[in-house]
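Need tokens for this chain, all 465 residues.
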Amino acid sequence: MIEARFNGTWQGWRDCARALTSRHTPPWDILWNASAGSPGLFDSDELCGEGARLNVPRDFLECAPIVACHRSPEPWRVLYRLLFRITHGERHLLEIESDEDVLEFRRMEKSVRRDMHKMHAFVRFRRTADDDYIAWYRPDHDILHINADFFVRRFGSMRWAILTPTASAFWDAETLRFGPGAPHSAAPRDDELEDLWRTYYASVFNPARANVRAMTKELPVRHWPTLPEAALIPKLLAESSLRITAIERTHTRSATHFIPAGASLPVLRQAAAGCEGCDLRLYATQTVFGEGPVNARIVLVGEQPGDSEDLAGRPFAGPAGEVLDCALREAGIDREEVYVTNAVKHFKFIERGKRRIHERPRGPEISACRPWLEAELRLIRPDLIVCMGATAAQSALGRAVRIQSERGVFLPHHIGAEAMVTIHPSAILRIPDPVAAEAERVRLVADLRGAAARIRGLDNTMKLA
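Here are the structure tokens for all 465 residues:
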């Protein structure tokens, strides 16, 4: 076993690694010791000079110094295992993404790069009496040396210092220097600009988009002590619900003003295409109105159009529609004889790359679109409204509904019809277990058979009367 001692830097490790690789020393024979200031085992010019340079892929040269900043004992071992394998017959090793060493290398690189990005975002300078600017920051990894150039480019005309627990960087508007670390107490606590910054942050804080889990993921609590705006966050979060209620009361929007009085279904459909009752219209391809006969005995109500429906302009035209069509056939219901619509007429989504992922509509969006569903129901006057999913039930019944406790129960509806609650067909598609998915599909068919039987029961009652 060889103990390879170096000063804990990328350059120190690189010199040792060159010498060891040139001697064909395998990774399992090396014990890495990154003790700062210790003399290196392979320090001679003969071993660490130009003659020991190695031919490695550019990807390794660019990423290895990043990985070397990872604050754990592992980077030196992982880097050498990769270097040894690359220089001993596995030239294209980094292209094998499933390799365990490559996976660990990429994981460390990602962690360090994320830490570098966080430092760009969360360093806050305080101005001193001498018009210098000082910031204190606690990174997760040893990134100050490779990250300092960013601040030179961004704040090149200022004289500044960035202090961290392990190292410090100093820029005098001409030269960048590094020194030892410093405690948080060495940095100024406040300056006259911080009240302005806090006022700005409070004014742009959007309570409707407050997501504590996402916020603490992107803005970890450990960074809050160095951020002037962080002191406001608990109070702003606590006030979020009150502010949302106030905003909704002040800016209540609805489709009511876009519904023509006494309109037929074709006129309603045409009017809905120009609805501006909520902002979902700004992102969706088109309005997706209901379809089916005006004398339908059953109205099926879903949540909102999906990606396929948004493009086709028809409700239940995608994968969930295929599940619904199959269930209707098994239940003995002809889709051509029912009216199919949605509680919300525009597709709400979030973009992930080239994909548009369904996002559940919020209460104000459901309320804004409810007048369209009301107008459809009052024109059709069905005997039974089948609410598929919680959003559909909330819109049709005007209250929150628990699917499992009220599923299959026939409830009174204010237009004189009955309503029944079941699951949305898309819920079946999201069940990963095929057996569980099939069981849920069978339950949906049973619910629809119950709906058909209810209509037949109403017919028999009318004949007896």
